[in-house]
Structures are given as structure tokens and as C-alpha cells.
Amino acid sequence: MILILGGGPAGRMAAIRAAGAGEKVTLVEKRLLGGQCLHDGCMQVCGLNDCARLIRSARLAARSGITRGVPEVDFPELLAQLTGIQMTIGDILDHETRSAGVEIIYGAEGRLEEGKAYVNGKIFDAEKIIIATGSRPVLPDIPGIHLPGIFTPHTLKQMKRLPDRIGIIGGGVMAAEFAYIFSSFGVKTHIICRSEFLHQIPLRLRKEALKDLDTVIIHENADISDCIGDDTVTGLRFNGTVLNLDSVLITAGLKPNSDMIRGVDKGKNGEILVNSMMETSVPGIFACGDVIGEPCLTPVARLQGFAAADAALGRDSSADLSYIPQSMSLGYEYTWCESREDEGVTISLPGPAGPGTFWSVPERRTGISCLKVNPDDGRILSFSEASPAAGVMGMYLAYMAKKGVKVQDLAKLHEVHPTSDGMYATIRYIAGHLKKKTEISETIGLHLLRKDKR
């Protein structure tokens, strides 16, 4: 019998894997399957971003003079429709999980005390336990942070109407995504971050992303002293100045949701410590997903869920997290994968005109493709791209980088046309550059050889 605490991407994948091996599996979920990804994170951003892009596209068409008028968003109806689709996806996940043979207990509080599992306060007998309780938003320690009108992605649906002026606390991907959404909806949007905005992503990609955030006011290196307001938030005070606002959204990162887990070793931020087999300091108890800490990405959580289940089943198990691509959704998709090697040749090219970029040609906003390769053998080391479909390219390119594929081989591909993806042209260009470099070296070598023979 395997007990799984949490029904997000990590817990659900672990449950399906273990049940598929013939184990009796019970999954405990406090609310609905899908976890933060479905209800507060990825899918929430997808739904809001689709609407934001529609409005931005309409605005571009009107500015170009080919259409008249720009639609307005009905924010309460948008949230209601968004919730409905999320519930539909949740029902599909429920059917899929139960069909795999997993028993699901909804609305239950699961916790761990000294190696024993409790469900709704009663001891639950299980041979193995997998902890997949996810993460929750970080709330900065700022006076007034709990004032009405201050939201997190988890409480965003409590926002009754679009604000006139919103301040977004945070400087990472989540802050950028919500800033794009609210600014597209016509809200005066401010980002307030304590360091440099989007310092986590490649510099060239950051410059491109700022084009999508051209109406957002960004306050970097801001030291917020307090949130202002009595019955509701009316502003933020930072660096000795006051910024008047009528709403605040906190996107300051995530922290492991591990308060209910006791008796296993944890790190300084509350993350549950595991070995390479996803096992905690207590034999027979495993953990996976956001609750074990960074990078807090859904694909990583799924891999860790499979690995935890395999370990609980006594199989060889590990989650290979090398070459994991990351993505951000603004007007375009922004995808990148960093390299562990410092030396390399980097080429950057603008994206072509194509689906999703054609009408942006006059503004020179067709995206960017950057590729870094080993100059000696042409192996892909890292990449970044901004385009309407960068995520798909990033997924396959990261896999090819992991396998040691060379640009010389990829240059033999035939691209689909028309396309707004510029990575293929970048691959061809850098492959040609390396070929020319090799030919020059061979010519010089041959010349020196002939000279020696004389």
C-alpha cells in the first residue's frame, strides 16, 4: 500500500506509475487534482494570457489601420469562464487517475508525524509514503502585506474588478507574465522588484521581453518599507517614495508547502531533503515536486514523481534534470536552456516574418533566436528564443543538446514554410560559420605542409 500526499503534477504521476505496477495506491488531495499548476499557476496564466494576446493583436491591427476598435475585457466573466475550463480539466485528470487504479480522497488534510501518516487526524496505515504537497506563494515580511486589495496568484480570483493601477511585487518570470496580462487589459501596471528585473533569464532574451512590456513601469532595486492603506491597500512605500495604487499582486516566488510534514530532514527554506532516489531521511518515505525545492517547474515535478514512485517500488530510479528548458509567456513565448560550459560560439538572429509575427515587421518585433555551440565539434550548448512557438522548439532542442547533437547534422533538416521560428536559420548560419572556419584551418594546414616538404 502506497500513500501519496498531494495531487499536483508530481503526486499524480507518482500515483499513476505506482498503480500501473499493480500496487494499491491512495492519493490524498485537499482540494482538486492538478495542483498549483492547473488552478493557480500555468493554466491560469495560459487562460489570461490568451485573452491578453487577443487584445494586443486587436490593438496592433487597429493601430495599423486595418480594423476599427479594440475589445474590452469583462474581467469577472473572464475569471468565471477560466474557472469553468479549469474544472473541466480537473474532471479529466480525475477520470484518468481513477482509470489507472488510484483511489482518491478529496478534501482531506494529510500530514506526517515522526514517520506516521495522518489523514483527517487519523493514522493511515501505509507501507510507503510519497510526499508531493507542492509549494505556496512567498509573502514578503512587509507591514500591511495582509491588507484587502493585496492578492497572490492563489487568491487572484477574489479580485472583483480590474483595478485602475496595480503594483506587482516581484522581478521574475511570474511578475513579467502578470504584468503583460494586466497591462494588455488596460491597467496602469507597475513592477516593483528588489533587484534587477528578469535577471534570471539570458540578457538578449530580457531585452526582447521588454518590448512586450513597453507600457509597464519597472522599479528596480526597490526596498519596500510598507503597504499603505486602512480598509484597503492604497499604495506602496519604497526607497522613500509613495506609489499610489488600488491593487497589489505578490509574485515574489514560491516556498515548499511542508509545514504539515514533520520528522524528516529539511533545508533552510523548509524544503524536504532527499537523496538521488527521492528518499527522505526516513526510510520508506519519499518526496518529489516543489516540496523538495527549486526549480519548481511542472515538467520537473512530473519527472520527480515518476522517480519517487519507481524508488518506492524498489526499482532503479533517478530524475535527469540536465538540459531542462524553461519558458515564459508574454506576447511571444520566451524559451531558454542554459549551458554548463562557458566556452562557445554564440550567434543571434532576428525572427522571420510568419504566423504571429507578420504584422509586427514594421515595428521590428519579430522575435530573436540565439544559439551557443562548441566551436570544435558543433555540439549545442545552450539556446534562447522569442517567437510565437518557441516552447516547442525549445523542448526538442534541449533534448538534442542532451544527446550531443551537432549543428552540422541539424543543418540538413528541411524547415516548414512559412514559419515564425528563426532557430533553423540560426542553426544553418552557425553550421556554415564552423564549416568555413574548418576549411580555412585545413587550407592553412595544407599550405604549411607543402611548405615543409619544400
Low-confidence stretches: 446-450
User: How many strands?
Assistant: 24
Q: Strand-residue fraction? A: 15-25%
Helical content (DSSP H or I, runs of 4+): 25-40%
Mean pLDDT across every amino acid position: 93
Quaternary structure classification: single chain
Largest sheet: 5 strands, parallel
Compute the separation of the termini in Å: 81 Å
Question: What is the global morphology?
Answer: globular
**What is the CA-atom radius of gyration, in angstroms?**
25 Å
Overall SS class: alpha/beta
Biggest sheet strand line-up: 3-2-1-7-19
Number of helices: 10
Q: Which keywords apply here?
A:
single chain, 454 residues, alpha/beta, five-stranded parallel beta sheet, 10 helices, 24 strands, 33% helix, 23% strand, globular
Structure report:
This protein has 454 residues and is an alpha/beta fold. The chain contains ten helices and 24 strands. Strand 13 and strand 14 form a beta hairpin. Helix 1 runs parallel beside helix 7. The protein is globular. The protein starts with a strand and ends with a helix. About 1% of the residues have low confidence.
